[in-house]
Amino acid sequence: MHQFLIGLALALVLVGLSYYFSFLSVSGSVATFILAVIIFGLGGWPWAIPILTFFILSSLLSKLGKSKKQRFKDTFEKTGKRDYGQVIANGGLAGLFTLAWFVTKNDMYYSFYVVSLAAVNADTWATELGVLFSSHPRLITNFKRVAPGISGAVSIPGSLAALFGSFVVALSGYIFIGGWAWLLLVTLAGFAGSVIDSFLGALFQAQYQCTVCEKFTEKNVHCQNPSRLISGHRWLNNDWVNILAALISVLLFLLIF
């Protein structure tokens, strides 16, 4: 009970600060509070540190080069404050693995937990830094040049950011679990998650074209009009791609481990 109360207090502080600094919307704040209570309250610091590492660093990166990123506001489905969908997409699996560990006390779930966070962190860093430092990305399926911000676009700066982002989260878990082989596998699995995310984005994620300005976008409504679906599946938006990529990265880790 003592740990749960500490987790409740930490969740309140985290959500309050995040909302104040415009990291989260109202719905994102509610979802983050529930997720934080589960992870902080049930898992304690070994579980809190990796998700705090992801959340704090990724939130700060989202503010980096804010003026330059404004040109992607019509391309990305969601920008700025994280809503409940993004919170669930990035931390939902982590919350489920925390609950599974609490019920079973099987430590393998901790590895799954860190891998899922490494994957979403890798993807987030690839996006946040890739759009800033690469003006000529290529589509991962055929390596043809595409406009920055297009789903499935990859670049050397973005890939390096993804690898380092995965390593940072893996390192935050390594502090508690140890083992260089574990650190390497988690890092590679998280990085693989970002690569899988790019493939899913290029092949299956819903891509639209505005019927008014003709811009390519992830938004199903653009210029206040319904956009035209040009590829992918309507139900598969960026949030679902993130969830699937993180889940596949966990499965890859399980197979290799």
Description:
The protein is mainly alpha-helical and 257 residues long. It has one domain (46-256). The protein contains nine helices and seven strands. A three-stranded antiparallel sheet has the order 4-3-7, with no helix packed on it. The radius of gyration is 18 Å and the shape is globular. The model has no long low-confidence stretch (mean pLDDT 87).
Distance between the termini: 34 Å
Kindly name the structural category. mainly alpha
**Topology pattern, helix = H, strand = E:** HHHHHHEEHHEEEEEH
**What value does the average pLDDT take?**
87
User: How would you characterize the largest beta sheet?
Assistant: 3 strands, antiparallel
What's the number of helices?
Answer: 9
